[in-house]
Amino acid sequence: MNFSSDNVSPICPEILNAIAAESESAALPYGADDKSRQLDAAFSALFGTDVCVIPVATGTAANLVGLSGLVSPFGGVVCHHHAHINMTESTGVAFYGSGAKLLGIDGPSAKIEADTLDRCLGSHISNGMHSVDPECVAITQSTEFGTVYDVAEVQAIGNVCQKHGMRLFMDGARFANAVAALDCHPADITWKAGVDVLSFGATKNGALAVDAIILFDPKLRRHTEKSRKRGGHLFSKHRYLAAQLLAYVQDDLWLRNARHANEAAKALQKSLENMGATAAFPPQGNELFIHMNDDLAQRLRDAGIVFRPWASIGPDAYRFVCAWNSPIELIKSLPQSIG
Amino acid sequence: MNFSSDNVSPICPEILNAIAAESESAALPYGADDKSRQLDAAFSALFGTDVCVIPVATGTAANLVGLSGLVSPFGGVVCHHHAHINMTESTGVAFYGSGAKLLGIDGPSAKIEADTLDRCLGSHISNGMHSVDPECVAITQSTEFGTVYDVAEVQAIGNVCQKHGMRLFMDGARFANAVAALDCHPADITWKAGVDVLSFGATKNGALAVDAIILFDPKLRRHTEKSRKRGGHLFSKHRYLAAQLLAYVQDDLWLRNARHANEAAKALQKSLENMGATAAFPPQGNELFIHMNDDLAQRLRDAGIVFRPWASIGPDAYRFVCAWNSPIELIKSLPQSIG
Amino acid sequence: MNFSSDNVSPICPEILNAIAAESESAALPYGADDKSRQLDAAFSALFGTDVCVIPVATGTAANLVGLSGLVSPFGGVVCHHHAHINMTESTGVAFYGSGAKLLGIDGPSAKIEADTLDRCLGSHISNGMHSVDPECVAITQSTEFGTVYDVAEVQAIGNVCQKHGMRLFMDGARFANAVAALDCHPADITWKAGVDVLSFGATKNGALAVDAIILFDPKLRRHTEKSRKRGGHLFSKHRYLAAQLLAYVQDDLWLRNARHANEAAKALQKSLENMGATAAFPPQGNELFIHMNDDLAQRLRDAGIVFRPWASIGPDAYRFVCAWNSPIELIKSLPQSIG
Amino acid sequence: MNFSSDNVSPICPEILNAIAAESESAALPYGADDKSRQLDAAFSALFGTDVCVIPVATGTAANLVGLSGLVSPFGGVVCHHHAHINMTESTGVAFYGSGAKLLGIDGPSAKIEADTLDRCLGSHISNGMHSVDPECVAITQSTEFGTVYDVAEVQAIGNVCQKHGMRLFMDGARFANAVAALDCHPADITWKAGVDVLSFGATKNGALAVDAIILFDPKLRRHTEKSRKRGGHLFSKHRYLAAQLLAYVQDDLWLRNARHANEAAKALQKSLENMGATAAFPPQGNELFIHMNDDLAQRLRDAGIVFRPWASIGPDAYRFVCAWNSPIELIKSLPQSIG
């Protein structure tokens, strides 16, 4: 069992079939094909409002291209210190943002709290053209520590953004897991709460490689498309991105996969706690951060379980990530099988 | 029949099977999986020298990331005015090159001639830190007008580059078609001729989406990997890029596909000439640029043949591109079927 | 006598006095001082319309910062191949323009002709997000070959720009020499002709170091000020830029200096022609490009005259530049003194 | 009396005379003149080692251009949160550094402590191409809070940098004040302590506008010169930068000016303390940060004293900056004159 990340999982059958089904015929390139032209409608239906969908092949691309329209070359993006865009995407935000700067803030379990954000933005003293003034806020849902903003929390952050004239970006590499955990409508934690742009992840949750930039503000389309092209992220065989995304949202596949992963994580938490581990954060999505002693860690490794130490939380901390195909029954039987 | 581009073709079966075969098990992300770790060896064998392989999902990314290590932020990339990097990749070279500038030159049928290049580089008057001095030459093989540099031509360009201290980049979006047309060893038109970096295209020739940056100079690896990551082109499920590439080079699939496309283009040329068209350039790869009158163009369209006008060559000019799956027998019978 | 450039000339007395006069008292930094606050009014009076003035210390900075507000990161700036921004400012346009690309066109004596520009813009085939589409036109007044656009020519270019939705930038490093040569109102060749931004040169014409970015569109102020600051061009002792500029435009000093330089160039042309040289272009401002034989060139050098060969015009071509302090009587007597 | 900043002070007589002396004759541009060619020798003598001097007109330019050669587009610059490059230079570090990122750390009175730095660098977990790894450390001497690193402190930081393979940059906008305060040789707190590049400020300490980038590593010259030119910071009348710098270091003018400013600051501290203020930090250079009550602040303002509130230190905190021309006797008599 490999819990090192959800990106170790393969393509799920429905999406593989959708790719294979595209392998019969010719189709126009660069998004002019039939499948690509269905994207806006499909996601507008899913979100209950008109959206513009710009697919790319990686979550980093979705974040960087998606953010690029929300901040000027002289502006700042407020995010949590532990945000993926701050920790794990090289200098990509400055690259796609022509110099834009990340402004890290703190908060429990990788979450920005609305009050903290309000204080931070309210106490920021602009020094005119000398200072980097915040122009955008970026949150991750579910977060880098496996926690989930509930509907009220996102709404509160959206309100703070509106109050201070900030655009709001959501890194949704694990958006499906958050929606599944909250059992809410996707609109509730996006445009209804003030999110301008969402990176809607599919890669980690069953796709081969596709994450969609969802624009809730259609005026962003032109810049975002140009940024995508210039970054080298416009697929010629664009239909293969579209086919993956359409299969992903058809019949709620995205939610079914996410619910499975979340359930697996809950089962894993229980099994690990039974063996003596303790959760570092209340796990809500498909990521589990736990503390355990060396002995337990070694026994798990000896049993072929793969997982990663997570030093930023502590020397005895580890991350386990479940996926759409994690074997729930095996997970439940871990305490017995490892003993 | 759709000849508007080779990128309208679907995935070929061997590559689809390779993708499907990856859908059984977990694998480490970001290139640490078994398939990805085979890439350097597979391509080193193919090229007959040690190479470093850095796969990305689009040809534009392969060009831009690949070039980024060969030119400084203050330097120039000499290319043909009609080069894809100059005409069709937005401001991508400056983006990935931190400001680097394209310096266009002329030449027949989208080819740079070694003599012209030598004169151009020899007559360039550097103005020190004021001027943009050439640091790199980029050629496309096969070219944007469907022609192919022969071995001696690439070697001559390589010699000029060496003489003037230039790095040499090759945009090989249709590299397979060139090798198939020349019936040469891939080494003959790359590292043996002085090419430092090659973008080795697979997407147009049967893959879903993968082009490989081939580094013949291992010292470029670190910069190129960092540039790929920052650009958002490092796949988490990297194995799917690797699987495509390994299938593509196994049992000469890349050359078989290219030979098929080239043969189809030759048959198409013959058929069109039989109907009154004339080739704008001697077609060598899988792209065909022809002149024809409105009547013939209309009859082809009426028969459901798809192709594109090509205004940069002339008002009566059109492009037809064949692919790995073009129906050669149908193409041969065009004069009869259209009448 | 040193004709290698007008930038070899020292500060003129009026401007030196203005600098010295600022050396008595304290003044607020970054443009909040009294002198700086007079700039907008002084130049609005000079141009006969409301302008915003943003001073920097070099002509390159004035061009690059000034252009940065007129073109997107994905767009092109049409200019003459011989334009200073294309030939002598490194990769600065892409740097300040976040990737923006120069698109060189031809024209006689370094001038863009309105008809050529119209054809070029009219025949440009946008390829959507793939291509770099022109967004701005940049002309130099007076030009890099010492010629001057007359009022009708600038107006015609302005009309073409308006027709095609282009912004219009003017590199006026030697703007004073052009106005002096044309004996026109500065409005006639700027905002009345459609110029959006002008770099108004003073450094070559008597200042220590200051060129002003003149914005005819006040909406550009915010971006331009931020770009100036980020580029490191916002002076703390801003008053010294302002003092130079105010002295430069007071009592028509700028025009008096320019008239002197133009007159010197005319005298020099006459003297050189008397000695057998021929003008490469009809000299209109303070720059003179001539053809002469080796013998004459050597005799001039032997007499201590400094000037520069200009290979881009021809092997027997040379440039002579006169300045605000060129010794006109000595110049007139050159044929006698050299013999 | 205006203590709002040292940049409100005018040019000092020696430097104004040097500028005026350059106003007699012609001189070659862009650093080829006699004065500019003396710079390397003059500063090599001053520092007791071979240095390369690259002058620019602002402190921000000196910092940004100077740093640009010490960090890759994917790397990080460790600095204090309160560093000028982090707080007051827009997104300039990312701009000149092609994306390079600032990594802020804490420390008392705007100083980085060697132990903290060592822990920070030692505990940094590189995530390969995903993370931004520190490549350079930047310190300010004297600091943004008016404190001064002593010789041992700089040496300790230099040792930590060497241990971790970091380059070391020093923002010396007020370097003279630090040397004057320490009464040390300038070598002791620069190259002997491991500093690679120093921005050597003159503007605030008596010049019109010039700060010199001092390269202790000559291999940085080429990149730094290209970066300066592209940024628009290469003066055509370069001799006026050189003349200022030569006058500034001749006969220890830079130290005499700095000693005066430091002495004025000490006198001011004493006067303010006599009136009830308390120093926020031990003042060492020419900047004074104090706490005082509203009543005292108002009485000072009523007496025509100009100074600035400094909210980042506290609601009752203010900054006073003395300069080369601050009236020491008047400052001493403040308690009497204000009463």
TrEMBL record, chains A, B, C, D:
Gene3D superfamilies with a match to the protein in the record: Aspartate Aminotransferase, domain 1, Type I PLP-dependent aspartate aminotransferase-like (Major domain)
Pfam families: Beta_elim_lyase (PF01212)
Segments forming domain Aromatic amino acid beta-eliminating lyase/threonine aldolase: 3-293
SUPFAM superfamilies for this protein: PLP-dependent transferases
Co-factor requirement: pyridoxal 5'-phosphate
Biological processes, Gene Ontology terms: amino acid metabolic process
Residue runs in coiled coils: none
Molecular function per GO: lyase activity
Record's keyword terms, sorted: Pyridoxal phosphate
InterPro entries: ArAA_b-elim_lyase/Thr_aldolase, PyrdxlP-dep_Trfase, PyrdxlP-dep_Trfase_major, PyrdxlP-dep_Trfase_small
Top-level taxon: Bacteria
Family: Belongs to the threonine aldolase family.
Assembly behavior: Homotetramer.
Record's protein name: Threonine aldolase
